[in-house]
Input
Amino acid sequence: MITVELTRFRVPPDRAQELLDARPAMIEAFRTDRHGFLDAQLVRIDDDEWLDIVWWDAAEDLDASQAKGGNLPGIQAFFAPISELLSSERGTLLDAPAPPW
Output
């Protein structure tokens, strides 16, 4: 079953563009290095709060990804402007139209 990862974090407003600039390389790193990665969406909640929604083929794929952490430069660059992790949750997708992947 598809696992959804929900990570809420803070980025100082003056570093927001750095986060956005690093996003494409982070997504590419996930596509090549993270088995089971399906897709991700980034949501800006307000000036300094963000929500990253990441879709995984299975919970085990998310676990393996978390064990790797920031193992590649593209991932490290995305993590760099994050000043505070507010929450990290996961759930199982139960009801949705056909996924885009």
Observations:
- The two ends are 14 Å apart (CA to CA).
- The chain is about 35% helix and 35% strand.
